[in-house]
Write a structure and sequence with these properties.
This protein is α+β, with helices and mostly antiparallel strands and about 210 residues long. It has three helices and eleven strands. It is globular and about 45 Å long.
């Protein structure tokens, strides 16, 4: 139950708060704070300084038998806001994403699906190749739908990675030490190697 703010009547300064008690946050306020945690880490003196960092990517080759050629493209998600969190994508709506209902690819695509890979450090031994549709129900996939598909791929990868062991020398990238919901999708593109292979640019909070 919220506590009232106690105002001193003895002070010569009117309205001086001598024993303020802030009300407990409402459920909505707690949820909003949780959604913002990927942007502003909690100011806890027991936690070292944090910063948002890119999950490293690596140059990739196309899978055997790939014959299509894609134009190079990078699709940004909420460019000025530096992305959208996995939490918002899983539980939100297209309104949270700038141009979310617009076609993701504003150009002819060579096929109805694209190859998508996750190159999380230390997990090259875990399945990380997926397919992203470019056409849904006979129409081009929207930017929001693409974001949802990317997060679905990461969720599948995450389940496998959590049951696997991170390779030696990559312990700092052990997925068990990361908050899946707090990761931020900033872009998807095919500029890291073969043009037929797409990767996502994902940021997360790490301790310095």
């Amino acid at each position: 139950m919220p506590r009232a703010v106690i105002i001193s009547k003895e002070s010569s300064l009117k309205g001086l708060v001598t024993d303020a008690r802030l009300p407990y946050p409402t459920k909505d306020a707690r949820l909003a704070s949780e959604q913002r945690r990927y942007i502003a880490p909690p100011q806890n003196p027991s936690i070292a300084q944090c910063k948002r960092v890119d999950i490293p990517r690596r140059p990739l080759n196309s899978s055997p038998g790939r014959i299509y050629t894609w134009p190079q493209v990078t699709l940004a998600f909420n460019g000025q806001a530096r992305g959208i969190s996995f939490h918002e994508i899983q539980r939100g709506s297209p309104l949270l994403l700038h141009l979310g209902n617009s076609p993701a690819f504003n150009l002819p695509v060579p096929q109805n699906q694209a190859e998508f890979r996750i190159g999380w450090p230390g997990y090259s031994h875990v399945t990380s190749t997926y397919s992203l549709p470019t056409i849904i129900a006979g129409r081009p996939i929207t930017l929001w739908e693409l974001a949802c598909k990317v997060v679905e791929c990461y969720a599948s990868f995450w389940e496998h990675a959590r049951r696997a062991k991170v390779s030696q020398g990559n312990e700092r990238w052990d997925v068990k030490g990361f908050d899946f919901d707090a990761m931020v999708l900033t872009a998807v593109g095919n500029t890291d190697g073969h043009d037929a292979v797409f990767q996502a640019t994902v940021e997360t909070i790490m301790l310095l």
